[in-house]
Amino acid sequence: MSGSTIGKIFSVTTWGESHGKALGVVVDGCPAGIPLCEEDIQKELDRRKPGQSPYSTPRKEEDRVNILSGVFEGITTGTPISLVIFNHDQRSKDYSQIADVFRPGHADYTYHQKYGIRDYRGGGRASGRETVARVAAGAIAKKILSQLGVQILAYTLSIGHIKIDPERYDSSEIYRNPLAMPDKEAAGRAAEYIQQLKEKGDSAGGVVECIIQGLPGGVGEPVFEKLDAVLGKAILSIGAVKGIEFGKGFEAAYTTGSQNNDPLIYSQDKGLYKETNNSGGITGGISEGFPIVFRAAFKPTPSVRIPQKTVNRNMQNIELSLKGRHDPVIVPRAVVVVEAMTAITLVDYLLQRILSRMDLIKKALS
Amino acid sequence: MSGSTIGKIFSVTTWGESHGKALGVVVDGCPAGIPLCEEDIQKELDRRKPGQSPYSTPRKEEDRVNILSGVFEGITTGTPISLVIFNHDQRSKDYSQIADVFRPGHADYTYHQKYGIRDYRGGGRASGRETVARVAAGAIAKKILSQLGVQILAYTLSIGHIKIDPERYDSSEIYRNPLAMPDKEAAGRAAEYIQQLKEKGDSAGGVVECIIQGLPGGVGEPVFEKLDAVLGKAILSIGAVKGIEFGKGFEAAYTTGSQNNDPLIYSQDKGLYKETNNSGGITGGISEGFPIVFRAAFKPTPSVRIPQKTVNRNMQNIELSLKGRHDPVIVPRAVVVVEAMTAITLVDYLLQRILSRMDLIKKALS
Amino acid sequence: MSGSTIGKIFSVTTWGESHGKALGVVVDGCPAGIPLCEEDIQKELDRRKPGQSPYSTPRKEEDRVNILSGVFEGITTGTPISLVIFNHDQRSKDYSQIADVFRPGHADYTYHQKYGIRDYRGGGRASGRETVARVAAGAIAKKILSQLGVQILAYTLSIGHIKIDPERYDSSEIYRNPLAMPDKEAAGRAAEYIQQLKEKGDSAGGVVECIIQGLPGGVGEPVFEKLDAVLGKAILSIGAVKGIEFGKGFEAAYTTGSQNNDPLIYSQDKGLYKETNNSGGITGGISEGFPIVFRAAFKPTPSVRIPQKTVNRNMQNIELSLKGRHDPVIVPRAVVVVEAMTAITLVDYLLQRILSRMDLIKKALS
Amino acid sequence: MSGSTIGKIFSVTTWGESHGKALGVVVDGCPAGIPLCEEDIQKELDRRKPGQSPYSTPRKEEDRVNILSGVFEGITTGTPISLVIFNHDQRSKDYSQIADVFRPGHADYTYHQKYGIRDYRGGGRASGRETVARVAAGAIAKKILSQLGVQILAYTLSIGHIKIDPERYDSSEIYRNPLAMPDKEAAGRAAEYIQQLKEKGDSAGGVVECIIQGLPGGVGEPVFEKLDAVLGKAILSIGAVKGIEFGKGFEAAYTTGSQNNDPLIYSQDKGLYKETNNSGGITGGISEGFPIVFRAAFKPTPSVRIPQKTVNRNMQNIELSLKGRHDPVIVPRAVVVVEAMTAITLVDYLLQRILSRMDLIKKALS
């Protein structure tokens, strides 16, 4: 059944396999009147492009985006925007070793069970390459959000056991080091750690943190469309994510109510504010108007050279040592994907917010 | 905008406020031909009913369910099933102290921002009481699942820092102690801890773990409707949940690929199996056919007697000490809610699974 | 599968069977801030209430509506509005003759095929009584529309071969005669015609026409959610409707382009206007800002006393003469249902219109 | 807001403008395991291709379809199928005369009102060329239906006042004459009529009739997703359609119940059958298992050479004589579009039918 569409208002439909002819996305419901060109999208794609550092797959893909519809004379027209990225460096033969094998940690066996048939080349639809379409759509969402004063910033919080030190937090570092860590020193240690794993043929996981600023209060739809629920779904839909938490997250479960509640305080200077942000900026599933904070846990890349036990389609036990081109860590390239999924979700629910109140409706239609 | 409906196939729409006339749910898309009576639903409602232990609010509610449609001569007819639970013990005056105040940790301020108006009595729509409708719908979902061989079991994994000991795990304890902990000894200590908090006027959080057994492989819809993503959304939509993780969850981020991958093994006796379940039973967003495991973090009940700083509608700083009837811990009553949301989600995606393959479609229509 | 919900923004879910305990509707997505009381809804229900004229079923139903949620101190809160109408005069025994019989023209046989089981009492879910929930929801939609300057007016255009004379059109007559015809003379002749059919145990069909005024241009979502397509679906979903046409409708197929196009004309006095309205106020699926006109064809009530051939569940050929209480014509009571479905659809798409343009979005959020 | 997607299960999202780079469609939810190649789709596209007869626009478009995803080794994989048709013969300068003018009968003025901006080249998104994407998706839907024994046949019933004679009905004629009329003699007269209009610079409308055979009973979802309602929406969403009717349609409104009801009859030889089909094969919104019949009215092509009054963007009254390349009648090329929309709708609801009954669900999952 259809599961490649997300969003009720700003509706994003992706398609494409890792080694098919192309990948793409249709964005329907983008408001008319937004300046948009291919470069707006390309600069986001370039952030997740493979082959940019020793810590990502050497697969060479230009990942050039084409806008095929929905933009006229540089302005969105309100009709569906179709974006396509053609595949070039497909090297299908690399993957012949896995046509009949279920790689551990990959979706080979589950796709086999679900569909009976699967495009095994490079993981097909289950490949991380699928996220190129998310990032393209996210670039459009970000343009809308920036016009409405909303900023999204994600970064690598930790790789393996190496975590950034909040005291050394420096956001400018995010774009400077290839691991997208806002702490130069931690990034250095993480790079060494990954290098070691790479030599062993192993891989690392990590945690991405995301901060949303400028989002007004009142965004999110109770009961089942709570903002944390829909953000959670969007982030958990990214391939390797195994957990998500908001604000204090799992730690909140160990505190008491009097410790965990964030008192609201008003002062002439600052207006309304909170001294703590244990809630992560969302209460009752609705944005508070304060910064939103969440973290997503990424499992280590399942493709490792170290030999592993598994079975093939004939249920024979085999040992598998993956050759091919693989990321020893996916986390840094996932940072922009987290931002994209956040942006796609926020646009959808920020627009929905208008329709919750008769006064806003009248203002829009007046 | 509408956010009170969940499910595409098995579609659940809830309504009602904590101190309104009633709460209820419409279940549309329930297949015809399932035996269903009020007692099937009532026994689930009784598991979350307030006033059953010293650790839950003394509010007295019978929580009697009425089936108003969709069942004929004890069998579902395929038409919408409307369930209503009328409120009795409303005591609206208890809440007069909070009409103009934004309680810390509650959704008072966010609802105020979103809608401009809110039913402040007992939290209105944002009250935990809203979950009575989820549990009612979940009872129907469970009936369907049990006919298809799927079992769901949730329990309290920890309250505050008191965690069950896996060595002492005893599932029969879940229904025996009021904290729904499958470890008698831990339950005893947790009870003491809660008693202390209660006396201080404070509250505790905790973690709920949930195990799904008997679900076939192939359930979940890539890309955006991955099974973990949709389960995550369903669980994060429960009021106090601040995080969710699958299998090894956040810990996976600290391991390496060779450690974290679950090898597939085949033997004549056992068929295909896994020695580890780090994935939590879902890969690539699709069920593996092995047990699914996830954990949800619940924040402490925000209603505490201990005085807290906050503001009122006029942005005056005040100190608030909540009287009323409150749960010192919500986790044990949330266990059945976690099961309900899991069941509702599983039915929806298990049914969708049929439509993914032409061979299953032909089998059904033959 | 779920089919009892309509609307993406203003989402209406109905439930209930003709002879069940109650019928009802949940309206989710109604904006906060609208004054609403039971009387607002009741006055619409009274327009379709049975037993009000010799031309409708003598079944006695008060059809009293109860608002169970979503309204606080007389104002909508943005949360789901649950409305219930309890059944009183059920007389189930009247229907015992049809438990095993498939009445011609009724949905007995199709429900039997679809679900294997059906509530045969009074047609169950397939009864025209189901529309009581539509009218209740429509009353809320009308309140919103009236705040936004939109009016909907439906009336009986013809009953059998008796059609109103446009020269004698008098809208005040619609509420004055029991056939809702805006032509007193035609209403008189139609009444005689129905009286004759009633005596013979037969029934009549007819056509309802509906005019929408005050709807701004720009409403309707290309390509699949064109305004005429979604209005068409809403109207065709009413039990006995067999056709719908907009503007010149089927006649347009017999004209030429130069005859059928409506020229746009501008004058200082009148602004932009059209001398003809062959389009019926919608072009390219989007409202023009001029009046919208459509017509719906209702088949004759299938319940007739005249003996008819049919089969029973055992595929035995039988002859059936329906006793019971039946409307000799359903059209006049359907007029308010047409208005309700129109209102529900218009609210949904009028609200969607805001989200089509960045300038409207900014205005709402500023 | 998003309106370019149709279907809940078999979900079709189209995109593209008449004179943009390409048009296309993403089909998500297509079951895995269906043989599919470009030729399957191409042969349907060729049926609506322009420039094939004197009665269609001489615009030259190859309309070659490319499958970019979702098919592996000639079999559908269950993942989204992306189809693209690149535009070649765009001749944008032809349309420069209309950049600032609102053509009568076209969607120029309504798009202008809705979006503030529009791609005026060839009507942009509102062009009939948009239907190429529908036909491509319809080809896939037809493949599924043919595997399930369902056939769809549409044809031109009338052009202007020239109607086929049922006595001369010959289905083989549909593919033989360029007007898709199953009556050679009527087709001849219609051709003459169109030739006359063409010389005058005028255009004709017409009626398309569609017959569905082999669809089992039980398809369609009460209450709002009745089969006639959803088919009606699908057909009304085709550009020039102004009306739709099922079975006896508008004529039913003039009959009586005893005339209009279709008696069910059972015989050893024929099984259950009906001697009349006034219902058009749908009762209570559910298929009966008998042939389904409906008719759609198409207005005349609005592009005519005959001078017409209209206004430009500055609200100046002007006279417009359209040059360019236009179809003097759109009806014959619309026949395959009607079939496509019917197929897309039927697949979606035929699959939904499985989920209505527990016995079918168990059969599929066993």
Outline the fold blueprint.
Four copies of one chain form a homotetramer.
Chain A (H helix, E strand, L loop, with lengths): L4 E2 L4 E6 L5 E7 L9 H11 L16 E3 L3 E2 L2 E2 L4 E6 L21 H8 L15 H17 L3 E9 L2 E2 L20 H17 L5 E8 L13 H10 L4 E6 L10 H4 L3 E4 L3 E4 L7 E2 L2 E2 L4 E7 L9 E4 L5 E4 L10 H24 L3 H8 L1
Antiparallel strand pairs in A: 1-2, 2-3, 3-7, 4-7, 5-6, 8-9, 8-10, 10-16, 11-16, 12-13, 14-15, 17-18
Helix pairs in contact in A: 1-3, 3-7, 5-7
State the major sheet of chain A. Answer: 5 strands, antiparallel
Shape of chain A: globular
Rounded radius of gyration of chain A (Å): 21 Å
Strand content of chain A: 15-25%
Q: Helix share of residues of chain A?
A: 25-40%
Your description of this structure?
The structure is a homotetramer of 366-residue chains. Chain A is of the alpha+beta class. The first copy, chain A, has one domain: Chorismate synthase, AroC fold. Helix content of chain A is 27%, strand content 22%. In chain A, strand 14 (282-283) and strand 15 (286-287) form a beta hairpin. In chain A, helix 3 (131-147) crosses helix 7 and helix 5 (227-236) packs antiparallel against helix 7. The longest helix of chain A is centred in the last third of the chain and has 24 residues, at 331-354. Chains A and B meet through strand 1, helix 2, helix 5, strand 11 and helix 6 of A and strand 1, helix 2, helix 5, strand 11 and helix 6 of B. Strand 11 (241-246) of chain C pairs antiparallel with strand 11 (241-246) of chain D.
